Sequence to fold (342 residues):
Amino acid sequence: MKRFKEYLKEYAMFSTSDYVFDTNLYGDGNSLNLKIPISGPMFKRIWPDTIRTTVFHVLGAEDLYVLKKLEGKKKSISAFFSMMSRNLETGVAGGGGVVAELEADILISAKDDIMSQVDKTGRRWVELNWFENALGNMKSPVVDKVAKDLNKLIVTLVKKHLVNGISEGFIWEESDLMKQARAEDAANAKRAKERLLGKHKDPKLVIKNVGDAFDAWGNMKRHLKAGREGGGNRLRLVIKDYFDGVEKVIKKHKKGLGSIFYGYAKSKRQTDNAYDEQIVNNIKIKKLHYLPKKEEVENEEQQENIDAFVALYKIPAKAWSYSSELEIYTREVVAKETGRKI
Fold:
């Protein structure tokens, strides 16, 4: 689980390709370690009935203008429904300073830390194994099916973009593209295959099983000679195919995955954890809440930043003396929206 300061402020360290080809624990044919992109447009296409509700987001007063620029945008941020006062006290008074009350669209809702990561474009990613964690580490038929389909996706993409020949011990369904090429150019199938696969493929690369495919996937940049002539373009094509393939897999299992992604948001939104996590976008700032800083100089600077922001955008703000009072307020807001009593 991320440390709370990491939860308060996340820094984009890696590129999109770093997450797509992340080799963490690859090589065993286990797609549970694949990184899944949390794309607002993609999720909207799969689940058009958006859950729009009130959430809270912790940030520093100096970042208020950055948050303002995200209003109405597709870029996602991490928020919460519930957070214990001790975490508010440690995180807000000691690090963030401000809790923004937002109206937002829910992309993923969880009762604990989603362990999402951010790339340089601002897109968030989660590992597939989080889906089982969201179910209390229970084995899920839908997660197993998704994992198998993602295994197939990786093998298909490695076969399409890298492999010039598949070993006899590895059997996989021929792609529609290859079938079409063979039909259109039956008289010269070998040349048609080379034209589709490209001369950049490694004739020595042999795929005997799914684990081999994951090894090749993790080394995709090296295999495609990214950085050399044409390597970047080929890499972009692979990434596009990965995004398209992931969307098809999620859409295929949208009923089961929808329960995992949105079950908590549709429930009473109560957790036994220190805080829950909601990945949201299309935000609108409703109100600001803040606790005093312990250091007088820092407190004065924070107050000046908040006052200037409030004066410019006419957004209401409230200072709280105790974190316990702020926690009660956030719980009352959430309870009101879910129709339950505190």
Q: What stands out?
A: The radius of gyration is 24 Å. The beta strands are 35-38, 52-60, 77-79, 97-110, 117-118, 124-127, 277-290, 317-319.
